[in-house]
Amino acid sequence: AQSVTQLGSHVSVSEGALVLLRCNYSSSVPPYLFWYVQYPNQGLQLLLKYTTGATLVKGINGFEAEFKKSETSFHLTKPSAHMSDAAEYFCAVSGSGANSKLTFGKGITLSVRP
Amino acid sequence: DAGVIQSPRHEVTEMGQEVTLRCKPISGHDYLFWYRQTMMRGLELLIYFNNNVPIDDSGMPEDRFSAKMPNASFSTLKIQPSEPRDSAVYFCASSLSASPLHFGNGTRLTVT
Predict the structure, then answer these.
(1) If we measure between CA atoms, which residue out of A37, A104, A25, A31 comes closest to residue B46?
(2) Cβ contact (<8 Å) for B45 and A106?
(3) What would the pLDDT profile of B8-19 be if each residue is shown by its tens digit?
(4) Given an 8 Å threshold on Cβ–Cβ distance, is A42 in contact with B105?
(5) Per the CB < 8 Å rule, is B106 touching A34?
(6) How close does chain B come to A101, measured CA to CA in Å?
(7) What is the mean pLDDT of residues B42-66?
(8) CA-to-CA separations, A33 to A25, B71, B103, in angstroms, rounded
(9) Higher pLDDT, A85 or A51
């Protein structure tokens, strides 16, 4: 069984500030971990993924995430927020292997203040 | 690549009516997923297919919901009869084996 916890539902940062969105997971097998972004009235788009290998993963739009097994975490960061980063962000986990069934967290809404 | 295509984008119907949502996955993808998104429950997996065969439908809420995938390029999600609590955004997604999911833009369903 797998689960994802995203604490809080809303994060607000100033433009240019650090973005940190937290994600903790639970998985009975080695996990694959994902961050997706959803802009209004659109589907989810993949930001980045961790499968195996390097624990620091870089994604699109300047985002990155670090897999920390000891903390069961996969937090998403970006050094400098841009207005266009305002969206909803979802962390997701799946088991390794061909079955790509994903379990999503509740999502976090990121607001960026000018 | 046109991506995952869902239709209609918006559907408004009255309680008791039948609703059919449609999805065309990305060509060549062998997995297809149906998700429902609501404010209260977030994203819920309803059912998924592998090579057109339903693998896990444990997320389908009730017998009023059914999904089919008659071929590799088309799937439907049907609700009969619809109820106001079915109001949500329904997403279809497809993937190639263990690759990440590609989502459609969703169908916003409103049942009055």
Answers:
(1) A104
(2) no
(3) 999 999 999 999
(4) yes
(5) no
(6) 8
(7) 93
(8) 9, 30, 17
(9) A85
